[in-house]
Design a protein that fits this description.
Structural class: alpha/beta
Number of helices: 19
Helix content: 25-40%
Distance between the termini: 30 Å
Radius of gyration: 25 Å
CATH class of the largest domain: Alpha Beta
Number of strands: 14
Amino acid sequence: MAITRLPSAGFSITIRIAVPADASSIGRLTTSVGEAGAIVTALDVVDSDPTHVIVDLTCDTADTGHADQVVDALTALDGVDVRKVSDRTFLLHLGGKIEVHSKVSLRTRDELSRAYTPGVARVCMAIAENPADARRLTIKRNTVAVVSDGSAVLGLGNLGPAASLPVMEGKAALFKRFGGVDAWPVVLDTQDTDEIVQIVKAIAPAYGGINLEDIAAPRCFEIEARLREALDIPVFHDDQHGTAICVLAALTNALRVVGKQLADVRVVVSGAGAAGTAIMKLLLRQGVGDIIAYDRQGALHRGQSGLNPAWQWLAENTNRDNYSGDLPGAVRDADVFIGVSAPNLLTGDDIATMAKDAIVFALANPDPEVDPREARKHAAVVATGRSDQPNQINNVLAFPGVFRGMLDAHAEEFTEEMAIAAARAIADVVGEDKINPTVIVPSVFDSRVAPAVAAAVRAAAQNPASTPPPAADPGPADLPEIAANASATP
């Protein structure tokens, strides 16, 4: 059975099976699963009698269709009784992934009197007299709103607010696990820019920061820019800036591996939406040699018609030679390919045409722009957004530490200096003596990452002048502020 997609824990199933109590039965199960292209990750005996054994077989599959094929293959075996199939991803989501815990015990009348009435009235009056005390005396000091309208959920499109909620819950769980930040999903049943801005402004007093998530471009640019102007707390669009930070960190180390300088390389970026735009603008700020932006309109170039304002800006500020061909032609002789777009746009043969010691970041999820197995035959460094592949470029490397640093510094805005500082911190966690073609970013579970990012962001917030200037800065007249005009997300 040919399986082109890679099995993943995201499509893990547990199958309860009754088999005859003989020496070969369990071996037949694992062999059948392997022949079907799945990966057995656990096999547990849950019950038995003199004639039968009941087992729970857990395996990773490639998608729901592949899972069905695996179950069919097991059902077809003589003497095998498939009794139940459980999708482990759906089991994990039953009842949601987050909950609220009180920090105070409220065991006695005295504790209740201090936490609530009458004692709480004194705290309310203190904040009324000095609103800045809200950061010290309420959850505002450590709480972030994860805001989405559901218009660009992962790579799935416009699913709406209810369907976006599992992603926002997951984001909140990651904030807590990796940054110690209390985050809460705020999904909005509107995709009107003015309404979103007004709603977020209205709820902002309860939060120390706003994380915009899965809002479609180009609307996300205006929403972020207007909220940054209106609020005195940081507004961070993770699909833009989180992705750009992680890509810059990964590229920093990938270039160290191949011995190239950013100023000397040509980069092709597939996907000029939120993620791609932010990546390109941050690379331009850092002095990249040249960039070709590719999207549905083709290679963005000067003189091209029908471009929205964001694409028009890219057409005017990238693509030095004004290339106007297809994507395979764009990657020919390029040093770096960065994909934040759609699956299977390139082949291994296309990667073979890139420059010597090429770098490929194929970040579309769950299926990359090029099969990483094929890309590794020709590129020196390959990264994806997948957790089951080496060099996973994942926003969780950035956003928990970024917000931890901003909250600790009582920052009022997210800045480009913070982005650069965070990227350098992530890259440096690996260490120049540790990097190699399969290790250009730290693990998302590396306990050093979030504290290092938080410290770097805190320092940048408290003393922006201490952040080294980016290489070959094009200047504000040529390049608008990234935080107001960028975009990003794998």
